[in-house]
UniProtKB/TrEMBL annotation:
Gene3D superfamilies: 3.30.450.40, Winged helix-like DNA-binding domain superfamily/Winged helix DNA-binding domain
Keyword Transcription regulation: yes
Location of the IclR-ED domain: 71-253
Name this polypeptide is given: IclR family transcriptional regulator
Residue spans of biased composition, Basic and acidic residues class: 274-284
HTH iclR-type domain: residues covered: 8-70
High-level lineage: Bacteria, Bacillati, Actinomycetota, Actinomycetes, Pseudonocardiales
Region Disordered, annotated ranges: 252-284
Keywords on record: DNA-binding, Transcription, Transcription regulation
Length: 284
């Protein structure tokens, strides 16, 4: 990435450095950040020092690396709290979890990928949980491919032109094969995957649509493969599609009669928060 001058390019550099933490390691050093962004170490160091002074990043003297600071955490929490997509999806996630007993999630499309906005963890002793707020690629897993399938042709071309890295041995990285999968997902109205982001995990996802029926996110159900067999995936897919449609309608401000009416608070059956995690939780 060539270095440029001017106010806009400086702002872009700051944003690019902060975005390294959204899909990279927990901490990162000056040398690695400079290499990944194509900037000089002096420029990266100067920006990181400025961000440290504002609490957006924090310096760890022991590792000589930087991680996100308290101000970044505050911004992230505020963004999640104020997300319309998260707010309208949550009662539908609770409904999915209560009926299917597996973890239900909502994700948003973001530049360069997507991220989990929220989850309602499954009711089984062994269940799945996701990492909320981390940027993930669109080519790996049911959620990402579902969002990509319902994106614009230009967005699809851009995503498939990038370095498609294998997250697991099951991740599809061939652009032609991915295009064929995306066409099938559009025809089916949902996506399913097995072990593409985490070995032993399976998921089903359906798109949340915005203007011109372009995806702004997705609703999904995920669980261990030994429970989400091919037969089970086929059985739960209509529920996931229906929930995503309700979220689409709610996000657009349209009436959604017959939708779930559970409050986004304690579970109506157990009195516990849907975010309470009992038993064994497998994060992926």
């Amino acid at each position: 990435m060539p270095e440029a001058t001017g106010g806009t390019s400086s702002s872009e550099r700051v944003a690019d450095i902060l975005l390294l933490f959204s899909d990279g390691p927990r901490t990162i050093g000056v040398t690695r950040a400079a290499r990944e962004l194509g900037l000089s170490k002096a420029v990266v160091h100067r920006i990181l020092q400025s961000l440290t002074g504002r609490g957006l990043v924090a310096y760890d003297a022991a590792s000589r690396e930087y991680g996100l600071g308290p101000a970044a955490a505050s911004l992230g929490s505020r963004a999640l709290r104020d997300s319309d997509l998260r707010a309208v999806a949550l009662p539908h996630l609770v409904d999915l979890r209560d009926r299917l007993h597996e973890t239900a999630t909502v994700s948003a499309k973001v530049p360069g990928g997507r991220l989990f906005l929220d989850q309602v963890v499954g009711a089984h002793e062994i269940t799945m949980s996701v990492e909320v707020g981390r940027r993930l690629p669109l080519h790996a897993g049911a959620v990402g491919k579902c969002i990509l399938a319902f994106s614009t042709p230009d967005e699809i071309d851009l995503a498939l032109s990038r370095d498609l890295r294998a997250v697991t041995q099951a991740t599809v990285v061939d652009p032609d094969r991915l295009r064929a999968e995306l066409a099938r997902i559009r025809a089916d109205g949902h996506a399913a995957s097995v072990g593409e982001r985490e070995a032993g995990a399976a998921s089903v996802a359906a798109p949340v649509l915005g203007r011109a029926d372009v995806a702004v996110g997705a609703v999904s159900v995920c669980g261990p493969r030994f429970r989400l067999t091919d037969e089970r995936i086929a059985a739960v897919a209509p529920d996931v599609v229906a929930a995503a449609a309700l979220v689409t309608d709610a996000l657009a401000g349209r009436a959604t009669p017959g939708g779930p009416r559970r409050p986004a608070g304690p579970d109506s059956a157990t009195g516990r928060s849907p975010f309470d995690r009992d038993g064994q939780s497998l994060t992926f």
